[in-house]
Amino acid sequence: MKLILLITSDNESGMEVANRWQEAGAPGVTIIKSVGLRRLKDKIQREKLEVPLHIASSMTSVMAYVLHDISHTNHLLLSVVPADLIPTLLDEAQAVLGDLLEPNRGVVFVVPLDEAIGVRVFDSGDG
Asked: Which among 103, 120, 96, 109 is positioned nearest to 25, based on CA atoms?
């Protein structure tokens, strides 16, 4: 089994990739909304945010305060799949997002798993 992770800031396309992964045979796809640290820091520097004094004691506190109200700009897709499904899922991601080597398309990681407990893999006869 492998864990495939995709991070993209194109939320609409991220949802399309998730659907295509499921249609291609991924037993489940988890979607997590997220924000990158660079984008968070840029927002703090770009906007003159008024932060309560008790929160402004450290940059970490300020980032946590801003993170609470910021719109999450990325989608993180995760799926645990059989290793032989990875090429298909990569093809599906690139069919939607384009060449992942191009800037601002997305980032994909594939991680081998020693164990995957509770993952249900469907056979073609499971319907």
From this structure: 120
Classify 77 as helix, strand or coil: strand
Q: What is the pLDDT of residue 127?
A: 44
At what angle are helices 11-24 and 86-97 packed, to 10 degrees? 150
What spatial distance separates the first Cα and last Cα of the chain, rounded to whole Å?
A: 21
Tokens in use for 89?
């899922």
Q: What is the C-alpha to C-alpha distance for residues 71 and 68, in angstroms, rounded to an integer?
A: 9
* pLDDT at res. 70: 59
Q: What is the strand order of the sheet 2-8 is part of?
A: 30-34, 74-81, 2-8, 107-112
Q: Are 84 and 71 in contact (CB under 8 A)?
A: no
- Residue 36: phi and psi, rounded to 5, are -80, 150
Residues contacting residue 120 through CB under 8 Å, at least 6 positions apart: 27, 28
Q: What is the pTM of this model?
A: 0.74
For the chain, domains (ranges, CATH) are 1-35+74-115 (3.30.70.120), 36-70 (no CATH)
CB atoms within 10 A of CB 46: 8
